[in-house]
Amino acid sequence: MSTGFSIFIVSWTFILVGLLSIGGFFMFRKFLKKLPKEDGRSTLDWEEYYVNKTKHMWGVNEKKLLEELISPVPELFRDIARQKIASKIGEIAIQKNRKAISQDILIEGYIIATPKRDHKFLRKKLDEKKIDVTPYLALFNEN
């Protein structure tokens, strides 16, 4: 075998092992989210519960705002992000006994559901929409 072919085989081996590791990591995370907690429901079960329980509470404007806010999320992960964020918004709406999802509840749930590293993108998007972030500063600092 030539040296070039050996390098090619070794390179492909590292690439495949790397790709399989990345895929395995995401599959394992999904598996962990599907495991039941103390209450008998998994994280994914609760997300689905809150989304289904509050489906009727979403107005057209709130749905559009949610879509605009998650637009910076890469297309591949957007459905997962939408489910996670919508479930947190629904959970907050239920806790506060609201009859409809308002812009305030939507933004509060979005801030709580997203990691701190993504808050700068959210603030930028809210500035573009001319939405005042002052009422939510405490939430940005908590997360």
UniProtKB/TrEMBL annotation:
Alphabetically ordered keywords of this record: Membrane, Transmembrane, Transmembrane helix
Tree of life domain: Bacteria
UniProt KW Membrane keyword: yes
Transmembrane intervals: 6-28
Stated name of the protein: DUF2621 family protein
Source organism of the structure: Aquibacillus halophilus
Lineage: Bacteria, Bacillati, Bacillota, Bacilli, Bacillales
